[in-house]
Amino acid sequence: MEYTNERDFKYVIQDTSQVFIGGRMSYEDMMTWEEIPFKIKAIMNKYFINQEEAGLAEVMPKLEKEDFRYQILKQLKIKIKAGTYMNKKNLFGKEAKKYVSKVYHLDEYIQLAQTEDTLVTEEFIFSKLALMAFSL
Q: Which residues fall within 8 angstroms of residue 7, CB to CB, at 6 or more apart?
């Protein structure tokens, strides 16, 4: 699926307990944006960056439970907001495609990403408490 504007999914927002990072952020974007917390940059730099993958959205659907990166994301209690098109019945009983967006835990997201071809990764949600507890 092509996006009309890649910048729509490139952002960083923080509240008191979470960091929200746009789903289209590449590793290069993460390293250059000042708003990304240093701890997230350090974790990405140490455990995730390599030549084959451009960002988390590419890595996550391929993760296996034995993969160390999976265990890191599990430890960070990452959540992923993703959307997909689903067939739903409208008021008149006809089938219609509807875009549904939901926040998933890592395991749910991986399972959905491996089966759903129209999945759009909207954002990654990092717990600040889990980030604080994670040691490098």
A: none
